[in-house]
Amino acid sequence: MTTRQTPAPPSPDDPSARLVEELLQIARLSALEEMASGFAHELNQPIGAITTFAQAGQRMLDRPQPMVQPALEVLRHVSNEALKAGEGIHRIRKLFGPTHTARAESVVADVVNELLPVLQLLAKRYATIVSVEVAQSIPVVTIDPRRIQHVLYTLVQNALEAQGDTADRQVRIELCGDRYSATVSVIDRGSGIPDDVRNHLFRPFFTTKPNGTGLGLASSRAIVEEHDGTIGFDNIAGGGTRFWFRLPATAGAS
């Protein structure tokens, strides 16, 4: 049995400004995390190759009869600089890596309902209704509520943009769970995810939007995984997409 909650859209004069600002700050930090991770991934491979080749050349030139002494010095410089660059990238990743978050035992429905006025205000821009369905027996989870709200905001915003010219525009948020986890789903009535982009959606910098950054879903995945959760999506038969994320239940919580 489920209960449907569809609060009236908030007044435009009450945009929950503080919550919006906190979510925007999380979005900015998450984007920086993913940018640092993406840059490190792209640069570590060539830098590793430079180091390997440079050290191999150094060993060859360190033989009793080196080929060219100046080349040996150049290779030593290449090796040292490559190692320094690798250490610098490691420091950047550490700086922008997962940080301490203010986690607390939370009721998922409360976390969603706190964000709902902001989502309703966002939905008005797309002439779309956002509704929430809450199942019974959803376990308590230990989360940073603001970061999880950022994930939900991102998924709902994507769902709103996916509606296109659909006549009956509606985005539905479903909350369900079992003794092991709580699941939040965002369901739209768009055209679904094309096969050629399914494997790329959560990659940093990948986007199908003309002005997109490709960081929204990537940062959402990073946040969910920081909480030991999982995130994914399914196309719905007949049209639409269901994006979902699952968070582990808090051990011993009532």
UniProtKB/TrEMBL annotation:
Keywords from the named record: ATP-binding, Kinase, Nucleotide-binding, Phosphoprotein, Transferase, Two-component regulatory system
SMART domains the UniProt entry points to: HATPase_c
Keyword Transmembrane helix: no
SUPFAM superfamilies reported in the protein's UniProt record: ATPase domain of HSP90 chaperone/DNA topoisomerase II/histidine kinase, Homodimeric domain of signal transducing histidine kinase
Stretches assigned to the Histidine kinase domain: 38-251
InterPro entries registered for this protein in UniProt: HATPase_C_sf, HATPase_dom, His_kinase_dom, HisK_dim/P_dom, HisK_dim/P_sf, Sig_transdc_His_kin-like_C
Gene3D superfamilies, A to Z: 1.10.287.130, Histidine kinase-like ATPase, C-terminal domain
GO function terms (MF aspect): ATP binding; phosphorelay sensor kinase activity
Transmembrane parts of this sequence: none
Catalysed reaction equations from the record: ATP + protein L-histidine = ADP + protein N-phospho-L-histidine
Keyword Transmembrane helix: no
Enzyme nomenclature, EC number: 2.7.13.3
Name of the protein described by the UniProt record: histidine kinase
Organism encoding this protein: Povalibacter uvarum
